[in-house]
Amino acid sequence: MNIQDYIRDITDFPKPGILFKDITPLLANPKALISCADQLVELCPEATRIDKVIGIEARGFIMGSMIAERLKAGFIPVRKKGKLPYDVNSKSYNLEYGKDSLEIHVDAIKEGEYVLIHDDVLATGGTAKAVCDLVEELGGVVVQCNFIMELGFLKGREQLNTPVSALLKY
Ligand code: AMP
After folding, report:
1. pTM of the model
2. Atom of ligand 1 nearest to the CA of 126
């Protein structure tokens, strides 16, 4: 199934010059939703056990939890500043359109656990790099950063020292 047909381009959102990749048509279609999660799991390295899947707020939560269920792994939310209730580690990062901080619970990852990081879009790579740093500071091992889409012209994968996989490349 070609999930590209279910990605909608929105020009100048959330600000002028950004071509926003809208995944809501994909989420709304039952066959596309299931196929997308199945295809993302096929990208995962088979040789390594994955203990935890991280989803990055907010769109990374959806496929991230579907991947975790398929891999029989735990799901860990990484959230924007001030949203997680327990003790957190924080990391600030640059976005394609702004600057922000991400947080993880201090007990989310145990030393030596194998972690897969998922988000909908890899753009400049600042977000995923911040999450890799959060995982590594807790002693986790990032086995892959996995995305529905990669905006290749922004060279985000050059920011990441881990394997990177995406279903669609623009
Ligand atoms: P970056 O840190 O630049 O790789 O940006 C990645 C984050 O911003 C992801 O959480 C994406 O959901 C979001 N994002 C960045 N650019 C876009 C885009 N053109 N369309 C949709 N989401 C985007």
Report:
1. 0.97
2. 2
